[in-house]
Design goal:
elongated
């Protein structure tokens, strides 16, 4: 599976004064365009809140079973990773925020036996049969 465009388009309402500041910075070469400026601001926000994100993920892991795999950002499930999970009693659930890529080389029988459920806030890239099995749109 090859995925060239891993970006998502969002709409954001910004007040006129804030947008004027962004446009000023773009016009003076600080950013290539509005999207570049917004992306940088969001990356800085996430970096600033990283300890909070880490704390919440740790708490979520404790609140659920150790058989839940959590991710934030991007996770690619390869045949090797799937085999390792299956050797260690598997993961009942795969949860995350971002992009989950299930390599088409993964053995579907092993996947279905190892991972009982998938919950992703974001996007899942997988074969149609994997998406159908897990009820992913």
């Amino acid at each position: 599976m090859k995925y060239e465009n891993l970006s998502e388009k969002i709409s954001v309402n910004v007040n006129v004064a804030t947008l004027a500041g962004v446009d000023f910075l773009v016009e003076h070469g600080f950013y290539a365009n509005r999207s570049d400026a917004v992306n940088q601001a969001v990356r800085e926000l996430i970096a600033r809140e990283q300890s909070t994100i880490d704390r919440i993920i740790i708490q979520e892991t404790k609140d659920h079973s150790s058989r839940t795999e959590w991710f934030l950002g991007e996770l690619t499930l390869t045949p090797e990773r799937l085999a390792a999970w299956s050797r260690h009693a598997g993961k009942e659930k795969l949860c995350g925020y971002g992009l989950l890529v299930i390599d088409e080389a993964c053995d579907e029988e092993l996947l279905f036996a190892t991972v009982k459920a998938i919950s992703v806030q974001g996007s899942v890239r997988a074969t149609a049969s994997v998406k159908e099995h897990y009820g992913i749109q």
